[in-house]
Amino acid sequence: MIDLKNMPIGSIKGVGSKTKETLNKAGIFTCHDLLHFYPRTYEDRTPRYLLHDAPLDTKVALVMRVVSSPRVAYTPTGKRILRFSARQRENSPAVHIAFFNQTYLLNTFRVGSDWRFYGRLTKSQSGYYMFSPTFEPILSVSADTVPIYSPLTSLSSNKISKLIKTVLSSIDKNEIEDTLPDFVRQENALMPLGEALFEMHLPTDPRLLEKAKERLIFEELFDFSLRAERLRKREDTEIVPPMAKTDMTPFFNALGFVPTSAQKRAISEIEEDLTSSTHPHRAMRRLLQGDVGSGKTAVAAAAIFIALKNREKAFIMAPTEILAKQHFETFSSLFEKLGFEVLLLTGSTSAKERKLIKEKLVLNTPLLLVGTHALFEDDTEVRDLTLIITDEQHRFGVNQREKLLSRATVRNSLVMSATPIPRTLAMFLYAGLDISILDELPPGRQEISTLLIPPSKRERMYGFIEKEIEAGHQAYVVCPLVEESDDEILEREVSGEGKSELISATDMAESLRVRFAPHKVGLLHGKMKSPEKNEIMESFIRGETKILVSTTVIEVGVNVPNATVMAIENADRFGLAQLHQLRGRIGRGSDKSWCIFITSSKSHDALSRLDYMTKCSDGFKIAEYDLELRGPGDFFGSRQHGELQLPLASMSRDTTLLKKAMEAASVFLAKTEMK
């Protein structure tokens, strides 16, 4: 049998040092890793349309004959393009084909030669267009179903496909060692691993491809279920001494407001977890789930207070440095009044500060440490760590949870999440955790008014934002992309199309700087480096920046009570759960707030979804509605749960397989423990 894990990537023909380095950076070290780098999607390149029936603005395959000699032309901005025309039939309209930066193809397309072209078909006043399509001579057309891989730096989808085909051509699929236990595979009628991998990368039949996906999805869920079950069993056996009952009066006095009944209930559950006199006393394992603005931070603070009053240490971890700094400021103002020290440890903490923090961590004194992934450093030694709190847990993943839990001598864990999670998914992600739900908002929070407008009312919206700024408030403007790509700009130039309907954050920021001068307009997006992002965000938090133009990097946790307007451009491009998280960035103070969705979409479904958002502010109801609408899809959006190492599985789609995988994992562990 062939063990793919023992076949290094460097042994593949065509893998040189640079290719190997690129693959290694992507976590691909063996043939096993490469064959588990699955296609991002599949393209159906079956030439099934005549031109007049072909759908526009979507990718289609057309068999056409070249009818004009290729020539090099220039766009109005001076870019070189290769252009020629092709027709399906003698009397059918010509399709103008253009390649950007590929003038080396000048002698490839002879007049009279027949090709299969596959690309996005568009139409403007000057005719039909295809830009940079893939192409094959009609006499040597490959499979109709073509796997498409996410490119890795210098490795295109085609290059990755060739490497995978090289590996598959050198092995027998029946000789690949199966990684699932035989009884699990047989009981669930799953395809053998070798057959599944071949079908994923060299698809032969749509039904077999679905069976291959089912097998590989099951394996992902089974492996993760094993880890989660082992973690749960290990945590269940951890017996820890209970903490002493704590007088919470000083805490509530310092808090400055009366908690909601939901907050009080959650605090009581945490108190019971930490101080119960039951024997043996199990460590706390609790998920605190609440909608945006429901007051999770105050509940976490109560848990921290109990730990500190017991002269212990507590950690709270945030997914971003910005959020960690916000937590640090919030907890510092609270706990310093109560006589406790709060420290901050992030990736940008200086070596000198880091050294001082590490020295304090080994002392027998109570303190709270707030930080990011820097808390996972192997050389950070902690003594008397009693409580670990993780904020937005699905952005950490089980790897970090296991790593941090393995370091502490005494462990109680509280997980906070603002993402409404279906119970099946919660069982999977948070195996063994009890759940507290905050199902009401603190008093004084005004409901956010949500409006849906067309682009024609944008200037009127700007006038409203201007009034809010003059009243001393601030605004967010969210765009779906950072900047328009060069190819998109060139396509519009060549075809004579007007401006793109999609608005980029970069263009929007430039436009608003002119429109709202002299007010400061900031630009924030994921391509920026952390120090730059932090400075831009802090300028907004300080109130210096009046309008922050951003992509969805401001989705999680950012707290600026002075921001009262959230305008979301091309709102139809976002999932409802994501829109709700974005909307949760405003309405965090006592002032009235407005969220405005701008869309030019005429789609009935898109407008219905957005209209629902204008009428509903309950995150759990929105999540249920979103799942119903989308059907198959990823609950967390575009692969936010990549940390879970689930390249294929979808939590909303694969719930049936998930239940089977969890059951199989329990049976497998029980069988192995009996041996």
How does this model look, in words?
The protein has 675 residues and is α/β, with parallel strands linked by helices. It has five domains: 63 residues, DNA polymerase, domain 1, CATH 1.10.150; 98 residues, Beta Barrel (OB fold (Dihydrolipoamide Acetyltransferase, E2P)); 103 residues, no CATH class; 199 residues, P-loop containing nucleotide triphosphate hydrolases (Rossmann fold, 3-Layer(aba) Sandwich); 168 residues, P-loop containing nucleotide triphosphate hydrolases (Rossmann fold, 3-Layer(aba) Sandwich). It contains 21 helices and 22 strands. The strands form four sheets. The chain has a seven-stranded parallel β-sheet with strand order 12-13-11-14-15-10-16, with helices on both faces. A hairpin with a 7-residue loop joins strand 4 and strand 5. Helix 5 crosses helix 6 and helix 8 runs parallel beside helix 9. The longest helix has 31 residues. About 2% of the residues have low confidence.
Rg from C-alpha positions? 28 Å
CATH topology call of the largest domain: Rossmann fold
User: Largest sheet at a glance?
Assistant: 7 strands, parallel
Please indicate the count of domains: 5
Please, what is the average pLDDT? 84
Neighbour order of strands in the largest sheet:
12-13-11-14-15-10-16
The general outline is: globular
CATH architectural arrangement of the largest domain: 3-Layer(aba) Sandwich
